[in-house]
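Table S2 (text version). Query chain:
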Amino acid sequence: MTRNLALAAALAGLCACAIPQPGMYGNSVYGGLGAKRVSPFVAPQQQAAPEYVEELVEVVTEPPGARIHVNDALAGHSPLQYTVRRFWRGQPGYMSLDPIKVEALPVAAGQCVQSGTYGQNNQKAPAPVRFVMTDCKVQGNTPPAK
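Corresponding structure-token output:
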């Protein structure tokens, strides 16, 4: 009988240990069973590098008022400042930032579409990006003047 009583007491003690108690999972000041402990000999992990960079692009046109598209999205009318999110692309160790495509669309006669790509080789876009809307150079091959 005493043997059964001793076994019952041991069984009750084991069952009480199996039921989660406050502080068993590190919620107390002293940690507890399952608490995450940090060794002073292990270096802390570095934070992950950001997936993107936000860059402010300023666009000025002569004359002002041209419709400005940045990366094929309407940003507004010049002069303007626009925040561009440039994402990192490529394999670790060989990553580069997305370039920025800026396009100025004419709003009056005698003006032409102006565009440029900036930020290649992880460089920042120039501040400001300037377009002369009346500078209408012919694209492609032109025959020589006679």
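Notes on Table S2: Confidence is low (pLDDT under 50) at residues 140-144. Residues 52-132 form one domain.
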